[in-house]
Amino acid sequence: MIKINLLPVKEDKLIAEAKGFLAICLISIVVVVALVVSNSSLLSAREQESKDRIAEADAEIAKLKSIMGEIKNLKDKKAKLQEKMDMIIKLQEQNIGPVRVLDELSLKIPSNKIWADKLVIKGNKLELDGKTLENQEVANFMKQLENSLFFSNINLKKVTKDKAVQGVTVLSYGLNTTVHFAGRQEQPQQPAKPAEQQQAAESAAQTGANQ
Questions:
Q1: Which CATH number do you get for residue 122?
Q2: What is the pTM of this model?
Q3: Burial of 152: CB neighbours in 10 Å, binned 0-12, 13-18, 19+
Q4: Among the ranges 53-67, 98-112, 138-152, which has the highest mean pLDDT value?
Q5: Which residue range(s) make up the domain with 205?
Q6: Given 33, 63, 95, which residue is the final one in a domain?
């Protein structure tokens, strides 16, 4: 009987399988290392990108803080300037206001048939008493005051008969009004119709005559 020794063949097969397994292991290790390196590079890139974004955000915040600081400084300067302007306006009103009001009052007297005898200014209120030859002159005077930017809320207090002068009838009148030393910014209110003003003056004069 012929005997064949197969041991070398089995050894060669085992060695070949071992080599194949080792090759697979090496390839797997290489792939794993490549993945690890790739993932590490990706993470590093993302980390750097995040750092760059954070740096940009910090720079933007610093810029906004600087702008907000400038805005605050501008607001403070504006407030100080407004305070100075208000003070100047107040001083002008105190020094020039009454003179302008008196000048405006003299300009609004409609004719030489009406004049003022007594004038008192208390705060922003003006009390005026005077004489006139005709009721219509009082109505015209009130209309002129209502059309002025320095007066508002003109109220007729009285129109009464006074002593005649050389046979001419003289009427006493009184009115009060609000004074605007710096002038009103809004448009003057619509004045009452002259006929209504005259009627009010005549009614007041009649009431005074009956007393």
A1: 3.30.1360
A2: 0.48
A3: middle
A4: 138-152
A5: 111-210
A6: 95
Choose one of 66, 95, 124: the last residue of a domain. Answer: 95
Of 188, 187, 207, 204, the residue nearest 196 (C-alpha): 204
Q: Beta partners for 129?
A: 118, 174
Assess if residue 19 is contained within a domain: yes
CB 126 within 8 A of CB 165: no
Do residues 77 and 123 share a domain? no
Check whether residue 202 and residue 117 sit in a common domain. yes
Query: d(Cα 208, Cα 34) in Å, to the nearest integer?
Result: 116
Asked if 74 and 120 sit in the same domain, the reply is no
- Pinpoint the alpha helices (H) of 96-148: 97-108, 135-146
pLDDT tens digits for range 99-126: 888 888 889 999 889 999 999 988 889 9
Rounded-to-integer distance, Cα 99 and Cα 148, Å: 15
Alpha-carbon distance 72 to 160, whole Å?
A: 62
| 3-class DSSP state of 165 | strand
- DSSP letter at 185 equals S
More confident residue, 143 or 209: 143
The answer to whether 33 and 26 have CB atoms below 8 angstroms apart is no
Please state, as a whole number, how many other Cβ atoms lie within 10 Å of the Cβ of residue 209. Answer: 11
